[in-house]
Amino acid sequence: MIDEPVQLIAASLHGVDVVDAGRTLRLVGTCRRPGTDGEQPPDQTLLLHWLRPDGTRELSVVTEPRLRHEDGADRWTGFVADVPIEQVPIGTTGMEISLDASVVPVGAAPGSLASSRPLAVDGRRVQLFPSPSEHAEFVAQAYPRPFAGLRWKAALALRTVKDVLRRRPFAFVQPLRVATWPLFAGREIWLVGERADTARDNGYHLFTYLRRERPDVRAYYVLDRSSDRFDELSELGNVVAHSSLRHRLLMVHATVLANAYSIKHMVPSQWPKQHYMRQLGWRTGAYRVYLKHGINDKATDVRRRTGGYDLYLTASSRETAAIRHTSGYDRQVVETGLPRFDALVPTPPSRTILFMPTWRRYLAPELYTSELLTKGATGEVPFEGSTYQRFVDGLLRSPRLHALLEQHDHRFELMPHYNLVAQYAGAAPVGDRVEILDAAASDIQDVMRRCDLFLTDYSSVHFDLAYLGTPLIYTHFDREEFAAGHAEPSWFDHERDGFGPVTHDVEATIDAIEAYLLGDRRRAPVYDQRAHEAFTFHDRDNSRRAVEAIETLVAQGTRKTV
Question: Which of 5, 39, 102, 475 is deepest in the core (most CB within 10 A)?
Answer without folding.
Answer: 475
